[in-house]
Amino acid sequence: MAAAEVNPAPAASETAGETARRLILTCGKATLATLDRNRAGMPYASLVLIAPDAAGRPLLLLSGLAEHTANLLADPCASLLLDGTEGFAETLTGPRLTLSGTAQLVEGADKAAASDAYIARHPSSSFYAGFKDFAFWRFSTEAAHLVAGFGRIDWLEPQALFGDAGR
Amino acid sequence: MAAAEVNPAPAASETAGETARRLILTCGKATLATLDRNRAGMPYASLVLIAPDAAGRPLLLLSGLAEHTANLLADPCASLLLDGTEGFAETLTGPRLTLSGTAQLVEGADKAAASDAYIARHPSSSFYAGFKDFAFWRFSTEAAHLVAGFGRIDWLEPQALFGDAGR
């Protein structure tokens, strides 16, 4: 499938919430912005794979050896950029979504469902998902900012994205 | 040209510095992580187009109306993620580069060269580069972190990327 088909321009009838939810469901990767634990006040941007849980909230599978994981353990505040502009001749006319909030370790009985949802989206992750130094994290959204092209810019409440799950 | 040709796997003979410089020269877009001026201690990730200046340092063209621009005016600390994984069957085997540092407004006589370099890389930006609410910014790198696939991870000195220009 060509990238242009994966990332169509938002239809005029698509609401901002619908575009945002579509990006969460279709973007398999994102940029994670954390706070650099070794450089006070410095953000740190890195690449992650993401998968939606049953409510659409992004799940991450992170290595304990990675910089972003050590950053999150020191401070859970983070932001995710989901880039739906691939395939657009003019990148800045394509949709992208910023989620701001915190990332939490998935623990206890919740782990199995997270693993199932993540591996369903990223089958090859099954090879390392069980490694001792990998763990699932869930992103909890406090604010969402959608830029769906020039002049199509909206702040969204988490409820518009995740319904009853809230954030 | 297919994405796989744009982003070949780093050759075994390619050094970390060479891979990093290649990403800076070939990635036309990046994720910018800034600090959310309205949410203390919260990073904010957004999409930007980038173009290398004569020394290879990333130039940005930002709208004064954008969130990231207001964030940078409040605090210049920022990070850029350059994602060279497009076209890799397994995303996490592809190269990506984190630059950490600050972004500065390009001012005075330096503006013309920045504009020339940026428009050479992004010709359609010529339509808005001259708008009053757009301005050029240069990213100044303090640290660079390259992940060139599983287990190929390096911290690089800015001099390895930008030579005599330093950072």
Structural write-up:
- The structure is a homodimer of 167-residue chains.
- Chain A is an alpha+beta fold.
- The first copy, chain A, has one domain: Roll (Pnp Oxidase, Chain A), CATH 2.30.110.10.
- In chain A, 24% of the residues lie in helices and 35% in strands.
- Chain A contains 5 helices and 7 strands.
- Chain A has helices spanning 3-6, 16-26, 67-74, 110-121, 158-162, and strands at 29-35, 43-52, 58-63, 77-83, 96-105, 134-147, 153-156.
- In chain A, strands 1-2-3-6-5-4 form a 6-stranded antiparallel beta barrel.
- The longest helix of chain A has 12 residues, at 110-121.
- Chain A is globular and about 45 Å long.
- Chains A and B meet through strand 1, strand 2, strand 4, strand 5 and strand 6 of A and strand 1, strand 2, strand 4, strand 5 and strand 6 of B.
CATH architecture call of chain A: Roll
**Helix content, binned percent of chain A:** 10-25%
Please, what is the oligomeric state? Answer: homodimer
**Rg of chain A:** 16 Å
* CATH class value of chain A: Mainly Beta
